[in-house]
Model the fold of this input.
Amino acid sequence: MPITLATPERAIQPPTAKIVPHVMTVHDDTRTDNYAWLRNREDPDTIAYLEAENAYTKAEMDHTEDLQAKIYAEILSHIKQTDLTVPVKRDDYFYYTRTEEGKQYRVYCRKHGSLDVAEEILLDGNLMAEGRKYFQIGVFAPSPNHKLLAYSIDETGDEVFTVVVRDLESGKMLPVEIGNTSYALEWAEDNATLFYTVLDEAKRPFKVFRYALGGLGATEIFHETDRRFELDVSKTSSRAFLTINSVSSLTTEVRYLPSAEPLGEFRIVLPRRAGVEYDLTHHGDSFFIRMNDGGAKTFRVVRAPVAKPDDWVEILPARPDVTVEGVVAFAGHLIYEERDRGLPRIRIQHFDSGQVDSGETHYIEFPEPDYCVLVSGNAEYDTTVLRFTYTSLVTPASVFDYNVRTRERELKKQQEVPGYDPANYQSERILVKAPDGVEVPISLVSRKGVARDGSAPMLLYGYGSYGISTEPSFSPDRLSLLDRGLVYAIAHVRGGGDLGKPWHEDGRLLKKPNTFTDFIACAEALIAKGYTSAERLAIEGRSAGGLLTGAVVNLRPDLFAVALSGVPFVDALNSMLDASLPLTVGEYEEWGDPNDKMFYECIKSYSPYENVRAQAYPMMLITAGLNDPRVSYWEPAKWAAKLRALKTDKRRLLLKVNMGSGHFGSSGRYEYFKETAFNYAFLLDALGIRT
Done:
């Protein structure tokens, strides 16, 4: 057996993974992986090792059970447990979800004609989840006439969904069960045809099918053969067109079909060109296309005839400091979602006599210097009201309806946070210089009055990949940290989209090391400015953010006291060499293809698993999900085993594997809160804060 466990009282020893050398040679570089055997989940030793790690983690954390319970109670005290979302109007129906105190899952509801009428329950996640360890509703799609409901479910956490259809008038299920689907699902306007994507062996959405209700079944209509691309199906805001979107990290190709003609042939909008990304929205006889061709790295917007999409006219040129992140058409106006030097903005441009070129333009103003805003909940096309959600590190999520003509905004609902007074907290945004002189933003929040003499504990979060922005949003569970004097900070490092598309470009492929040196520079600056000290500084990252935490603890273990790494992508070199894994081929454009020696050497230089060495490390909590399709469980498991074998310190190193979930942890909200309480208890205990 691969486990050695001593069990007398508190003298339990960490598990010892067996060593089975696996030798591989790539580009004349020979490496030995002692823990590659953990990839075989059918090997009884693998499950035994993971369970032993869980047993060790539980034993090491037993003394924090009271603290975990206290934090869990605090989290619940700041949550309105019986609550509902702001209803979204679509035609004559209002759709919303609600939660009930003591119940894990959402209830999906609607009302017809008015919010004053009786509620109709469409799906009750609590009843549906009974007897299951994991349960998630993926896509929730009422038919255009609101008589049918197509939805998908995942019962393991592996993000493989099954689509079913319910007749909302009779309450009965139709004889439809479509397995192996992804997150894409759309209705044609005939109320009888569904379009969806299915997964290949690497769990890549690679085919689009059309499913005709009434016994006609499924027909394959598109197959994406290039393994760098994934497929999505969507519908324009006008509901007039269905689109098939072939998307890689750097390139896009869109096909379109009138949604009232589901048996027709999809046409290509613009043929794919390497490095050119685009998407579109529809209005009248035009498409408005957001694209980054011709060196427009921050994207420009053009208008093109539906009948001839390659005959366009530019209506919004690219600007060096402003990235256009999205464009949505409504009957009377266009909405541009922009990011200006790191801050999101909403630009509104009205149509004038059917044309946008001469229409009035304005921006929605926001009150705080550091915030995030999301346009969502807009199901109506012919409307003068725009719905968006606004939040910041000190402002709970606030849903607004904004009249684009009168410029008046109505607060529909702000997240209720019992026991929270924003006047007791402060947020700020600072800039620090990376080694190459680039200024990196940091968002911070703390209770007012926290000393700036280096004595305050801090949790510094980072991500920095895929062009994804880490938004400075409010989190009620974070109050358990802030109220104990911690400062919470977000390092907006390169590789993310925090400062627009160029920020991503400067932190991927051969420039990926910028992500790690940016983060280290942020940590050093926060210490130098008196926000914290190395002895009081904890760091956190999840998924690709776990790659970040893993890389920086190898580079500068002296700079951090604690590291939380959630489902971390730490075996980057071996995973990118295995084209059979989910995501690998599609991510060559993010990390580089290690079959090319140049990229092989770059990835090897920072991959956390490859660079573990005999040195002292911070206290560490590593988490994994056995069914995770994004970061396979063996990556954090192998990393923990190698760290145990090589690190020279006696500091706590824990691996916690959720044996019944995937990348996003437990599906039930109360179980998720318990996981958060566990993580916070580890963090606080490691920092010497034990009450």
User: Anything to note?
Assistant: The first strand starts at residue 22 and ends at 26. Confidence is low (pLDDT under 50) at residues 1-10. The CA atoms of residues 288 and 303 lie 5 Å apart.
